[in-house]
Amino acid sequence: GAGVSQSPSNKVTEKGKDVELRCDPISGHTALYWYRQSLGQGLEFLIYFQGNSAPDKSGLPSDRFSAERTGGSVSTLTIQRTQQEDSAVYLCASSFGAGTSSTDTQYFGPGTRLTVL
Amino acid sequence: AQSVTQLGSHVSVSEGALVLLRCNYSSSVPPYLFWYVQYPNQGLQLLLKYTTGATLVKGINGFEAEFKKSETSFHLTKPSAHMSDAAEYFCAVSAIRTGANNLFFGTGTRLTVIP
């Protein structure tokens, strides 16, 4: 079956603009994660959704960042008033559950490369 | 708090030589540990993971890792490197036992295989 897909694959924007990044998880996966991969910072957790529960937003770096997940499937990460330090690859992952059994492995999408000029 | 440290941002080995990528972790609770690989322009792929039980974990593509609590390590090894192993490798620890579900990643090790 299809893996995790993300769009766009590349996004170039000007400082101060808002951007939306999209993630389509694997069908049937209840858990969805956003991570950010940037030079010098490695991979950082941003936000986590599990079913209909309130999301874990503990990794969001500022209130300019928000995410939603509609209908328990597709997720959109929104960055408002982008800054140059927001430039990074934004990775989405999904898992069937949210534990540590073999079905709970996080499967990653190819990422969206965001460049803020 | 959970964190991992990967020693060596770049590792070069000759084709056929042993691959050893180092990872040390810090965790306030018994850790769940993972190795992921990232090929150019691709997403992360799980190589192997340790949760409980046997401390020597075998993964895909001939890789394995051993959980050593006394050394707080989870080094990744492969007896004989192949050209196709050239990629970036990430060690990660899960916060699952603290009630969270996210992964904490190391900064990655880029493996180069010399023909």
**Major beta sheet of chain A, specifics?**
6 strands, mixed
Overall 3D form of chain A: globular
| Strand coverage percent of chain B | over 45%
Number of strands of chain B: 11
Write the layout of secondary structure elements.
The complex is a heterodimer of chains A (117) and B (115).
Chain A lengths: L4 E3 L2 E4 L5 E6 L6 E8 L3 E9 L14 E5 L5 E5 L8 E8 L11 E2 L3 E5 L1
Chain B lengths: L2 E5 L2 E5 L4 E8 L5 E7 L5 E7 L5 E3 L5 E5 L4 E6 L8 E8 L8 E3 L3 E6 L1
Parallel strand pairs in B: 2-11
Antiparallel strand pairs in B: 1-3, 3-8, 4-5, 4-9, 6-7, 7-8, 9-10, 9-11
Describe it for me?
The complex is a heterodimer of chains A (117) and B (115). Chain A is mainly beta. Chain A has no helices and ten strands. In chain A, the strands form two sheets. In chain A, strands 2, 4, 5, 8, 9 and 10 form a six-stranded mixed beta sheet that branches. Chain B has strands at 3-7, 10-14, 19-26, 32-38, 44-50, 56-58, 64-68, 73-78, 87-94, 103-105, 109-114. Chain B is built from no helices and eleven strands. In chain B, strand 9 and strand 10 form a beta hairpin. Chain B is mostly beta strands. The A-B interface holds A 3-4, 31, 33, 35, 41-45, 48, 50, 56, 58-59, 91, 93, 98-100, 105-111 and B 32, 36, 41-46, 49, 51, 90, 92, 94, 96, 100-108.
Short description:
The complex is a heterodimer of chains A (117) and B (115). Chain A has 117 residues and is mainly beta.
